[in-house]
Amino acid sequence: MSFREAAPLGDVPEGAALGIEVDGVDIALVRQGDDVYAIQDWCSHAEIPLSDGDVEGCTIECFLHGSRFDLRTGEALSLPATEPVPVYATKIEGETVWVDLPTESEN
């Protein structure tokens, strides 16, 4: 794993999601207070961008069928999704959000 520059902190909305691509990986960034979460931006049920859904607390909802995912663990919290989605560690340096992504050899 290695940290990659993801987005300016000011671009990540509070309590909502920002869909981005970092090194070919689709990610939804969500800001909750001082925390920024990074989760794969595709619902494991229907391959719909999670960044288009609603954020409530530490969960994000797929707008198409209503599956909810935990932003901290990627766990599917409601049907119809049953499979988790990957989450990625983040760090903030200055005004930049960095995301820890697998290296090519780890894929």
Automatic annotation (TrEMBL):
One of its GO terms (molecular function) is oxidoreductase activity, acting on paired donors, with incorporation or reduction of molecular oxygen. Signal peptide: none annotated. PROSITE patterns: RIESKE. CDD domains: Rieske_RO_ferredoxin. Keywords: 2Fe-2S, Iron, Iron-sulfur, Metal-binding. InterPro entries: Rieske_2Fe-2S (IPR017941), Rieske_2Fe-2S_sf (IPR036922). Residues 4-99 form the Rieske domain. This is Non-heme iron oxygenase ferredoxin subunit. It comes from Aeromicrobium piscarium.
